[in-house]
Design a protein that fits this description.
Layout: E1 4-8, H1 12-23, E2 27-30, H2 37-45, E3 49-50, H3 54-60, E4 63-66, H4 73-82, E5 88-91, H5 97-108, E6 123-130, E7 140-145, H6 149-156, E8 161-165, H7 172-200, H8 204-214, H9 218-221, H10 225-228, H11 232-248, H12 254-264, H13 278-286
Parallel strand pairs: 1-2, 1-4, 2-3, 4-5, 5-6, 7-8
Antiparallel strand pairs: 6-7
Helix pairs in contact: 4-5, 7-11, 7-12, 7-13, 11-12
């Protein structure tokens, strides 16, 4: 029996994830109310059906998939819970393990800190996406944790979004995602900042030459930020969530709070349709260096 899945909200990643399910014949719906024309067009192109309002989506759905910027994850969970959803709620946002457990408590109706107990609302699945939007030849992994993780994994079998069920408790999938992005996105910000420092001090060319000799992949990797500059505004919250994850484990948070600051300097690239060149990105980051 096919499920009805509400995709909230179909941005670049969410629409690609929804398309994976729609291509398998699942009914995937979304709420266009309050969304941009670009979001509506993207969702409809991916095969998602418009139910207009979040309330209508919740009433029709067996499963809700939350794929939104991390700063919106808790509020979206509250809205879905307030609408009385009692199906399976999947949070696939880049949030800390602790915030994932809080989302679970919200949607299940359990007391905070006791996600999954005394359930009055939805079943909860903690999820984390690693990889690019799964479309064309691009593939990604969907890590899943929680008692109903297997139900969600079955939906994605045979799609470009490979499901991976973790044996850990709720929060495990979010933790894995945080650890993965702590390096990939954290190091991207760090390398860009290093390039700016070298440029300010007049040794950028020499640094690049030394990297070529002793760290062969770093010159190219230090330009990875160019292709991601238009997404930097979304990564601010993700870096803050990762910092909170480090803090909860008793580790210093400063690495990723600084990464959030780097991405905050790049918010101006949000609406760019073409990627900038490296000099533009480094100039944007270095604009406040005072030199």
């Amino acid at each position: 029996m096919k499920a009805t899945i509400a995709m909230l909200h179909p941005g670049d990643m969410g629409s690609a994830v929804g398309a994976c399910l729609a291509a398998k014949g699942e009914r995937v719906i979304f709420a266009s109310e309050g969304r941009s024309a670009a979001t509506r067009a993207r969702a409809e192109s991916a095969g998602l059906q418009d139910c207009r309002t979040l309330k209508a989506c919740v009433e029709a759905a067996d499963i809700v998939l939350s794929v939104c910027p991390p700063h919106g994850a808790l509020e979206l969970a509250r809205e879905v819970a307030a609408a009385g959803f009692r199906g399976v709620y999947v949070d696939a946002n880049a949030i800390s393990p602790e915030n994932s457990r809080t989302v679970g408590a919200i949607v299940s109706g359990a007391s905070a800190g006791a996600a999954g107990s005394d359930r009055q609302g939805a079943d909860y699945v903690d999820a984390g996406i690693v990889g690019p939007p799964p479309r064309g030849t691009a593939r990604a992994r969907l890590f899943l944790a929680g008692p109903r993780a297997g139900r969600i994994a079955v939906l994605f079998e045979g799609t470009p979004m490979q499901p991976v069920v973790l044996e850990g408790e709720v929060g495990s999938a979010s933790a894995l995602k945080a650890c993965y992005a702590a390096w990939t996105k954290g190091s991207t910000a760090l390398l860009a900042a290093i390039r700016v420092l070298a440029r300010v001090e007049g040794v950028e060319a020499q640094l690049l030459e030394e990297w070529k000799r002793s760290q062969g992949d770093l010159p190219k990797r230090s330009e990875n930020i160019v292709g991601h500059a238009h997404k930097a505004w979304r990564w601010i919250g993700e870096m803050e969530e990762i910092a909170a994850s480090f803090g909860a484990a008793g580790l210093p948070q400063g690495f990723h709070l600084a990464s959030a600051d780097i991405y905050r300097l790049l918010e101006g690239f949000k609406d760019r349709t073409e990627p900038p060149v490296i000099d533009e990105v480094l100039a944007m980051i270095g604009g406040r260096s005072g030199r």
